[in-house]
Amino acid sequence: MNDFPRAVVSLGLGIALSGCAHLTTGQAGSPDDPLEPLNRAVFETNIALDDALIKPVAQAYRDIVPEFVRDRIRSAIDNLAEPRIFVNDLLQGRLDPAGITLSRFFINTIAGIGGLFDRATPQGFARQSGDFGQTLFAWGVADGPYVVLLLFGPSNVRDTVGLGVDLFTTPPALVVSGHAGRITNAVVGTLDGIDLRARNIETLEEIKKSALDLYVHLKSITRQRREAQLREARGEPEQPIELTDPGAPASEPPR
User: Which site among 16, 94, 208, 215 is 20 to 30 Å from 101 CA-CA?
Assistant: First the structure.
């Protein structure tokens, strides 16, 4: 997949894009967002956390850690997720992506020194999508209401369940058992989110500045990107993603 649906990528992007839309007393949700008042409140909390903690830490991480080292960390974290992607591709009946993912894992683990280097992509084994929310979709589970999760950002009920499964089925949680495994998984997940946030500081700031209603714009971006990932689960060909801002004024028709 593109990197958006990864469980902890949501930590980086969700916090980073959380906005400051105003929540009025008695505000009702729209038909496509029945939980909007609550979602907007969580949205505001996420942006406050980002401004106070996440973004400064990500900026410091980018300033202190050399780019070469950051790239090795990114590659290693991505490699840790390959077994989960492989299993989900199998559960979705996507045998070709599963084979590519398995090949990537072995190539990068062995030739890439434990995943520190991506040796598979230059050999034609591109990174695939595969998360449990996507698997549930392939099995016919509906989205459910749109929700904004504290820290993890935009989602829906189905993908929230999928996120929970992904968090507990991604190494090192399956390799290191007990309390040590939970701590290790939390450290890896936090580093993943910080790294993703550091890689998107300028891009996300531009999105925040350009959106008329950031909450609505982010909801649109999230759904458009997710639909592209779900098309993969259906085995449909990849289509270009045209990210539109539903709050932008409509352009006038040509005369």
Answer: 16
Residue 245 vs residue 59, higher pLDDT: 59
The structural domain count of the chain equals 1
pLDDT range class, residue 22, cuts 50, 70, 90: very low
Q: Which long-range contacts (CB under 8 A, 24 or more apart) does 118-121 make?
A: 118/75, 118/78
Q: Does 161 reside within a domain?
A: yes
Residue 223 CB: number of other CB atoms within 10 A? Answer: 15
178 in a structural domain: yes
- Specify if 2 maps to a domain: no
> 155 pairs with which residues across the strands?
147
CA 110 to chain centre: 27
User: 22: buried, middle or exposed (CB in 10 Å: 19+, 13-18, 0-12)?
Assistant: exposed
**Residue 162 — φ and ψ, nearest 5°?**
-60, -40
In the predicted model, what is the mean pLDDT of residues 193-210? Answer: 92
pTM across the whole model: 0.79
Look at residue 133 and tell me if it is in a domain. yes
Which residues, 6+ apart, have CB-to-CB distance to 121 below 8 Å?
104, 127
What is the span of the domain harbouring residue 180? Answer: 9-233
